[in-house]
Design a protein that fits this description.
Structural class: mainly alpha
Helix content: 55-70%
Distance between the termini: 39 Å
Oligomer: single chain
Shape: elongated
Radius of gyration: 22 Å
């Protein structure tokens, strides 16, 4: 049985206007449109499972979008930056350590650097 939305996001008039503009505009990117549609449906009293079906998102993502909207407002509907580190940055940091260990190959330094970074960030290799 679908879980009812006990705590739908609340909107002030300015947020309501921004949300309506995003849902109605033909120039809104598809991902932002789906997220805005989810919030619009939840505010109108739809269940999360119904909002998921109508928007094309998975039900779990409906809860994620709702949580992001509650925290960040309309700005939370935009794509968030990813946490991944660019490969160029990793290679650049490994090259900066080249002076410390000139006998290692570039590949060995890069792999060691990635391993150390993962250990520091708490990720397993």
């Amino acid at each position: 049985m679908p879980r009812p939305c006990n705590n739908p996001p609340s909107l002030d008039p300015v947020m309501r206007d921004d949300l309506d503009r995003l849902v109605r505009s033909p120039r809104t990117p598809a991902a932002i449109y789906r997220r805005a549609l989810v919030i619009d449906l939840l505010v109108k009293g739809a269940r999360p499972s119904d909002a998921a079906k109508l928007s094309g998102l998975h039900r779990v993502n409906v809860f994620r979008v709702s949580k992001r909207f509650k925290v960040h407002g309309v700005a939370g509907l935009k794509d968030m930056p990813r946490r991944r580190i660019a490969q160029r940055q990793i290679v650049a940091e490994a090259k900066s350590e080249q002076a410390e260990r000139p006998s290692e190959s570039v590949l060995a330094r890069t792999l060691r650097h990635i391993h150390e970074r993962n250990l520091r960030d708490g990720q397993e290799c």
